[in-house]
Records
---
Amino acid sequence: MGIRFVTGNEGKAREADAYLEGVADVEQVAYDYTEVQSDSLEEIAGHGAQEAYEALEGADPVLVDDAGLFVDALGGFPGPYSAYVEDTVGVERLWRLVEAEDNRRAHFRTVLAYADGERVETFDGSVGGTIVAPRGEGGFGYDPIFEYNGQTMAEMSTEEKNAISHRGRALATFAEWLADAE
Ligand code: ITT
Ligand code: NA
């Protein structure tokens, strides 16, 4: 089956495509859905998926992915503001902010929302790690400063990252659901 991954972020689509190989054909579609004001990633992603499905021509289901980085010492910042903070403050300066803290624990969380015109379903995944000085050339976004088990996510291949990441975990739950739904 074909799935339209609605995102402006190539990295997300690349990871979903690799993960769902043999399960679904992932096509990246750029559509600027409304990000409703909410602290709930489920609500933001669910609304986005429903809106994108209605606005786009075609029958293939859509997936939306709403993610954030939550730093413990910063009260969960940047959280739902992660995209804005990446664009304004930047990844290097976020590291500088966390460098001063004793507790550098953080987690990534993502919510995938699926819409096929009949139903909207959400699947979430998260992973805990440590904020470190930037290392690595792979991945995207905050990957260079997020360390898991001795490696930053930017030092991992797509497959390695998918095996442990928030997105990989959400995609695993989604793939299980899809297999049961078919
Ligand atoms: P779309 O909304 O078009 O999907 P986006 O990049 O704006 O793309 P988000 O709002 O979900 O997506 O992303 C929040 C921020 O978190 C943004 O700065 C991303 O680069 C970053 N991010 C999301 N997933 C990530 C991951 O797996 N690794 C590193 N950074 C990630
Ligand atoms: Na976004």
Note: The CA atoms of residues 73 and 103 lie 6 Å apart.
---
Amino acid sequence: MTTEPIREDLAAIPRYVPGKALPQALKLSSNEVPYGPLPGVAEAIADAAANAHRYPDMGVTRLRDELAARLGVGAERIATGTGSVALIGHLLQAVASPGSEVVYSWRSFEAYPIAATVAGMKSVQVPNTADHRHDVEAMIAAVGPDTRALIVCSPNNPTGPSVTAAELDRIFAAVPESVLVVIDEAYREFVNDPSLPDGVERYGDRPNAVVFRTFSKAWGLAGLRIGYMVARADVADAVRRCVIPFAVNGPGQAAALAALEAEDEMRRRAALVTSERKRVVMAARDLVPEVPQTQANFFWLPLGERAVEFAAHCEERGILVRPFAGDGVRVTIGLPEENDALLEALRDWR
Ligand code: PMP
């Protein structure tokens, strides 16, 4: 059967696997927060709905201005998109050329290989260390003349650890300025180790730094699809050229602004997640001592060949987690009672 005129390389792209969603099940599979939208968000969406027949502000002006003020950068350095996953794709489209490469650790966020292939770039995947961290020296060594970008996922999805300031300093010192150092901080708000760097604060002025953030995780807006990035003005401009017009819709823009207004409550909720994280990881380590350190709202069970089996065991008990076959299981931190159910499932399994 002919597949013409479809690009042959698309068949090789692994499909993005969303965390399962079954009604009634405890959903610990997609790294969402369990609390519902922040105060004021639902009202802002309802108000914006009255303008559903109009196109939204394509420049996302108010939201970009507000983010710029909070981050201490010019709004021209911010690009927004339909989730940070879309923006990562647009960034790669903006730098791709025949034969160009993007370096990232593996295992890491499953969207990177997809975005790279769609953009027409070659993925150079650098295996994580035995303790599930980025192997920074090996990543640096993987940078070659065709490398356009190196992606650091910090905290790393799905394994949990963050990249340290010393490691990032080293990357910026070792990598030529012509290579974009992309720091994906989707889980930044859950980082509570004060020694870990804030990508915008520490590296924002480097010409080749690009920092990705999202409203999907701690800000509780996964369903509305809003992500943003901070970069040099011409890099942000190039990405904005690639973004689909009106990518961030009106209710999404309104909701993100309302969420920012509720920052204190976001921080309170993030602190609940991180205190649960500490409790749950300690308990999980009694059963699986190899659980790596995590700074995100999830943790990694390195179960190897038994990963799928454990996920099935959880599903039988009405708990959804995210298996990566042959490697491990990623478990999102939920409400205390949800976490207890997960720990019970783990105890029963071993
Ligand atoms: N980066 C990382 C590391 C992620 O885990 C995710 C979400 N799974 C994203 C980016 C994308 O998030 P969104 O598209 O919802 O902004």
Note: The chain has two domains: 8-37+264-349, 41-261.
---
Amino acid sequence: MTIAAISTAKSPAGIGIVRLSGEEAISLACGFFQGKQSLDDPANDRKLLYGHIVSEGEVVDEVLAVAFRAPFSYTGEDMVEIQAHGSRIGLERILNCFISAGAEPAKRGEFTKIAFLNGKLDLTEAEAIIDMIEAESVSAQKQSARQLTGHLYRKIEGFRTRIKDTLAHLVADIDFSTEEVEPVDVSALITTCEAILAEMKALESTFTRGKLVQEGIATAIVGKPNVGKSSFLNKMLREDKAIVTDIPGTTRDVLEASYSLDGIHLRIQDTAGIRKTEDTIEQIGIERAMASMEEADLIIALFDASRPLEEEDMEIIERIKDKRVICLLNKQDLGSVLNKEAMEAYFPGAVIETSFIRDEGLAAVEDLIESWFLSGTIEEDEIQIYSLRHKLLLAEAVESLSKAVEDIRSGIGLDLAEVYVEDAFLKLGEITGQTAGEEVLDHVFSKFCIGK
Ligand code: GDP
Ligand code: ZN
């Protein structure tokens, strides 16, 4: 089978690329490519050739074309890439030439899936490709680049090799236990397993931070109407994205903006002011504000320091006091009746006095966020996991290996331990894809775009 797809974004662009992969890729392309040099001449392998795509005697576009012969291509199969003008219509016409000549339209992620099946990359590297494409901050992009270049793969493979070795010892002992074979050194086995376990747990614990780096910190700004929520967002973004007015209830829906703090991005949601209201539309906004608050990694709660707390403020405090909150006592320029120490009772170490009119307190907010989320900044070469799939499998592997250690230690019998060690081995293999079934692969590659 030969598959074909447009691999570039569909909007008008300088260039666009149509890709083909499979046994017939080169012959199909030759059917439409006309140039001084021929694509099917092996001497032109991996050379950009100038020419035209011609269909039924009509020039479709002026292009550059390149052939890659198996196994030296992205997918490991024969491939052709056609660089054409980035016109959606033009690219679709070129694609249709190949489809009408017998190529199959590629499914999501199919090129990468073939590459995976041909051993060009492991599953973590394949997943890193889609993460890199979707990265929204420099640190997220860097993180996926590390995974893309096999850092996580090698780490997991390292665990697998050592676990396999352990398994071999266990199996040997079980198979020959009745005969005159040297018994397994149980304490050495435990030491080895515990060492691997400690490293696996350390890797697992990088998930929280890794995920924050990849996805950004979901931040919700909450507070009564008119306390300065939209002003805060605008100050952080240094632009007028949120509408600031002095009519309470202006921000009726959730407004999302992205803001980068030392490479990590904050996905900030400016929510509707929370208050009792008869207005149905405003009520919907308030419900969304509540939902945004529930899902947030970080809440910025604002209070008008120039007025005493009201019932609505107390309700907000009640709802958020167990979450990660930075409390801002705003409008300090109007004089403060709210006591910072009293608020510290609800939000220890996280109360900041601000005045957006005077630009006061914003740096302190940034500092606090940095100290919470960027503290203990990881080494450039430390390997982090950020995918929930990896984290769950790693946790299962840790659990199985822990059980194995328990069993070996308690002397219950090594055959049960063997089952657990084997399970840990398989779970790790599911991360890298060695032992992943079709279902797992379909799930991973369905998140890709067409043409990748
Ligand atoms: P929101 O409803 O909570 O989003 O509040 P806004 O950001 O729309 O601000 C409401 C009003 O308060 C606007 O007129 C702002 O200019 C004003 N405001 C915001 N921050 C301050 C501040 O620190 N001091 C004073 N005096 N006014 C502020
Ligand atoms: Zn607002």
Note: The CA atoms of residues 96 and 103 lie 9 Å apart.
---
Amino acid sequence: MTQQCRAIVADASGGPEVLGLREVPVPTPGPGQLLFQVAAVGVNFIETYQRDGTYTVLFPFTPGSEAAGTVVAVGEGVEDFAVGDHIATAEGRGCYAEYAIVDQDKALPVPSAVPLDIAAALPLQAMTAHYLMNSTYHVEPGQTVLLHAGAGGVGLLLTQMLKERGARVITTVSTDEKEELSRVAGADEVLRYSGFAAAVRELTDGVGVDVAYDGVGKDTFDGSLASLRTRGMLVLFGGASGQVPPLDLQRLNTGGSLFVTRPTLGSYLLNPQERRWRATEVFNAVAEGRLTARIGARFPLAEAGAAHSALQGRKTTGKVILVP
Ligand code: NDP
């Protein structure tokens, strides 16, 4: 008889209530794949876009690409991993479940110094922070960076990594509690959203920032563009407040030869070498105590909908995880 396990399944797009807990068959690893028992699932904003129809997915749908756990079976041809190994991934499938599948080339070995719940909090957001500051725009020591949602999952990790690089970091947050967290992560200046572009100009003696990292989107895009120095770059990497409407390219001219890019993690994990480089750097930084992943909230797997509501309702700080 096929073994059963619990998983979150949505039959159609909609609000957080479409995420229901079901019994489903434990998946079987195909050639080159690993089956792992999920210890913790990383919840990410993209799953809210997939759930509510902003991004297209096939239903019935089990969300979740980020998780950590223990390998329990390997498919044909798997040589790099064995049963009992601790792994994490940012590119799994259907990870809102007790068991999930990942291709071996997308599995990341977890160092023994890193607990599995922390390992689940890292791959997607920390590798995002890594590519944003190393590859989309290579931040140099002494440069000034604007980073929105400074107390969020990506925000806290990217702030620490930018400070280790020697950059000056200006963040935005919505509450006093988030301001405190952003400061502890190393932010030099922490602003509220209202009037942030004028405040950034003042803080930079009228010059503007070298790069603005904007994962908030609709509500902040115009201010981010207005915060750049001549030839500065706006990196629009998400839309927590909604998607940005079409842009008149002439604004890049009048703003001072500006750059805008809209990156996504998949384009920065193009091959096993690139994936291994980013993963090794972030896991080593955690193992050596140079980078701290803050788990702001843990929800039981069955409460995935509540986790989405908390994330979309701006109630979370750092990482949100689900525990099967
Ligand atoms: P966060 O933990 O940062 O949560 C989102 C934060 O955005 C909130 O906590 C809130 O912080 C802020 N925010 C501002 N306005 C709103 C609003 N109207 N509704 C909800 N939140 C708002 O999430 P993540 O770290 O998981 O992701 C941050 C962004 O990065 C997302 O847009 C996500 O899609 C994107 N992302 C992109 C990737 C890529 O490769 N392109 C990869 C990973 C994430 P506050 O209350 O302080 O304003």
Note: The first strand starts at residue 4 and ends at 9.
